[in-house]
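Run log // design_07
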């Protein structure tokens, strides 16, 4: 995976590599309508532990998160290390579906340094009762889905229109926005010295900040968002 760094920013341009199941289905160029259709489809796919491609994605997430560390099984106490609620991570995908796993995998592969920092809770003064990393990621996916409101028959906010323009330029706009959102959430978590009981409040303030940045006049791409600079 290539990375181009520029002076004054941590990340400028890089080759984006989604999960293999999605990558195989992609054509080189997609019309804006096709990109929206594909994203809506991704949002409707439930995680199915019996599907080989879903199992593959889960194993890929483990490998990207803990390189060189053997996974003993798709149901294992090891998953708790990543911040899943129990031995079987599939039970935590119910809220946002398979796309939430894809988002985590995209984050781990595309911005590995930032991903590892959040996973290991590095930087800042941390609470004794921290948010569980993986479950927080699922909640962030669900929050973004609600914010963008892509299934509404008519746009109810200007945020949706702004995002659709970004999606027309970059088919991975949703996944990039997810990575930004995770960084914003953790930054606000630290600034508030929050504990787990305040997670929903932090998530609401994260959404508000994302909306403010998306509506800025000079923000035409996810990469133009001020908080994009948090990613490494």
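design_07 sequence
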């Amino acid at each position: 995976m290539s990375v181009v760094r520029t002076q004054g920013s941590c990340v400028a341009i890089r080759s984006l590599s989604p999960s293999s199941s999605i990558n195989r289905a992609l054509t080189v160029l997609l019309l804006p309508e096709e990109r929206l259709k594909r994203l809506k489809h991704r949002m409707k796919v439930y995680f199915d532990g019996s599907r080989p491609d879903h199992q593959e994605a889960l194993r890929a997430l483990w490998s990207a998160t803990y390189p060189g560390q053997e996974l003993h099984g798709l149901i294992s106490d090891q998953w708790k290390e990543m911040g899943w609620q129990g031995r079987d991570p599939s039970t935590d995908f119910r809220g946002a579906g398979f796309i939430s796993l894809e988002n985590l995998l995209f984050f781990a592969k595309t911005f590995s340094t930032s991903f590892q920092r959040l996973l290991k809770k590095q930087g800042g003064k941390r609470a004794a009762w921290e948010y569980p990393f993986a479950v927080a990621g699922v909640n962030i996916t669900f929050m973004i889905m609600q914010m963008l409101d892509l299934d509404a028959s008519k746009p109810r906010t200007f945020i949706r229109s702004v995002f659709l323009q970004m999606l027309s330029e970059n088919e991975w706009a949703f996944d990039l926005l997810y990575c930004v959102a995770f960084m914003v959430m953790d930054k606000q978590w630290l600034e508030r010295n929050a504990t787990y009981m305040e997670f929903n409040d932090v998530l609401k303030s994260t959404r508000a900040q994302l909306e403010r940045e998306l509506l800025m006049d000079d923000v035409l791409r996810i990469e133009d968002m001020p908080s994009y600079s948090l990613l490494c």
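The first strand starts at residue 3 and ends at 4.
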